[in-house]
Fold these 4 entries.
Entry 1:
Amino acid sequence: MALEIEKTSLPGVLLVKPVIHGDDRGFFVETYHSEKYAELGLEATFVQDNHSKSKKGTLRGLHGQDRRPQGKLVRCSAGEIFDVAVDTRIGAPTFGKWVGFHLSSENHHQLYIPPVYLHGFYVLSEVAEVQYKCTDVYDAEHQLTVAWDDPAIGIDWPLDGAPLLSAKDAGAAALSEVRDRLPLWSED
């Protein structure tokens, strides 16, 4: 079995299915190899790694940055999440569209979200640990936070009751309210 990288319905968003070597002792999985990933179309230079731990029902997002946007390679190393990417390129045929995938410590799948897309996730298991590599550093001053439940985006979150939100996420703006901070799409 070989490493697989699948295109999704959003340009540049890729679902990565690494090779898992398992036996009665456990498993081994290579979570990133720049040459192998690049050969299959995921060419990115990562400069920051993040790790979060969240309890069931936590929803983090939707987040992005208008300056120094971050591409993210996301994986769930413990538990299970529903991971989402939203296209924010004004004028793009897929502007405001989203894709979502289940990432878990069982399937070892990863989601690559290009810079200028929004990202968020919802925790499905009792606890989830999420790790992601970023193509640029975090810039709090230029962070974009868009409402997770913005009807203009219409994400079909697999909620089990009201989500647990940070104060920042609970007070997030609609996509239309941050439009002047979003990038313009170009066919180049």
Note: The two ends are 35 Å apart (CA to CA).
Entry 2:
Amino acid sequence: MATSKLLISREEIAKKIDELAGTIAADYEGSHPLIVGVLNGSYIFMADLTRALWGKGFGDFDVEFIGVTSYGDGKESSRNPQLTKDLKADIKDRHVLIVEDVIDTGWTLDFIDKLFKSRNPKVLKTVTLLSKPSKKEVDYTPDYIGFEVDGGKWVEGYGLDGGKSGRGCPDVREVIS
């Protein structure tokens, strides 16, 4: 079993989410966006982000989830994302915010971006808790980034898993083999 060490504390995460929510609330003012979480890893980040948006006085939004997998049970991207759960909502002419846990190679969000753009949203933006720019293989840059981390680090916690474990940890931890 692998060990781990603290990388980003729950207090740091809460502070960053509050900052992101302030920026997003201002950017989406006057709209009724659809906030789309990418399953499975984004569920905690999305819950905390939507509560923080509410705390900023921005509560006029819808929520949906999309499922895309490119890692399976491993730690290496297949570079061939597969849709496992599609949206129920029509996003044509909607303001849409994609909520992702981590951008590693960029393949998953590139896939979602192309899929959603084919459905003609009015505005399409992405927020990610973590970005690993040194691992990027696809030219995809999110609109909002919580933290940048070293691409060589495998992380878990706060919804992210390390080979199907660690999702429930309230902090982000680096997995040490």
Note: Residues 11-23+31-153 form a domain with the Rossmann fold fold (CATH 3.40.50.2020).
Entry 3:
Amino acid sequence: MSSQFPRMHVSLYVSEISKSVAFYTQFFGQEPAKVKPNYAKYVLESPSLIISFVENKERVQNNFGHLGFQVETLEDLNIKLWEARKKNLVAREEVGTNCCYAKQDKFWVNDPDGVQWEVYYFHADAEFNDPHYELSEASACCSPQDKAKVQLNELTTEKSCS
């Protein structure tokens, strides 16, 4: 018997299933595996994830934190970013940011209920003696503070989350 879990499953409550299906079909780049009244499920191969959405406005909690995908290479990140830009999904972009104890390049998208998704490339662990890392920013920079777009070319590797 294997000690590893073969696939992760996540279930999110959404306020309107049709809006969520439209968004996630664009974001994931594939159709849902199953759609029923007030329910949709996607089965992603890479990363290995099963994610379902249940329409229930009363249980939507968009401030629980965020979800994310780590990509293997900068090229992978740039491809995902290009695809998300084409679909007008990108809420924010960051390059060389030091947050959540790591140096990363990333972009964010927000689903129709405000759930934040981070797509990121991990460069290295960030140390407290790094002059561009401030402990007080660690919790804030792990999710976008606003939905304003920040262009990649406006950021430098010396900027921290803001």
Note: The radius of gyration is 17 Å.
Entry 4:
Amino acid sequence: MKKLKEQIERYKPYNEQEEKDKQTMLKYIDTFDNVLTRDNEFGHFTASSWVVNKEKTKVLMIYHNIYKSWAWTGGHADGETDLLGTAIRELKEETGVKNVKLLNDKIFSLEIICVDGHIKRGKYVSSHVHLNLTYLIEVDENEILKIKEDENSGVRWVNIEDVKNVSNEQWVIENVYKKLNEKLEKLK
């Protein structure tokens, strides 16, 4: 947990949302022992990937069955302190890709995301927050893609400018995907 806390402390926020969310994440770490597991029903760490093609013109997205929307890849830390490893594992599981190229081993973005109550594996999960770290990863567009039926029902490349049109999670579009694309544009 110490290494994760240090990574978050070193992260330079991109905007006010990231600054506020960074401080809240650090408070969670100081307050709760179990923020790396779903045992913390208020909030827990997750990791996502902003997966781009070589030209950085497309993003690899999944159709998320719970959110009923096209979304980035990612998942719960489930006790792991290596959130980059979590992001890569989830990317591979959710899309079937085998080869990934890490564009930076540092946190690309951080955000706290509200998750509405829902049914997962036949059980109700109360509303909570995901303390999310995002990493920037490149994947070859020619990789064979496969869905992970228990989590998603589609995997596809989406043009960067179309991300806002395929997702129906308005807050995530405006506060996360827009930010990720702005940051990505600065790397081109």
Note: The chain has one domain: 2-187.
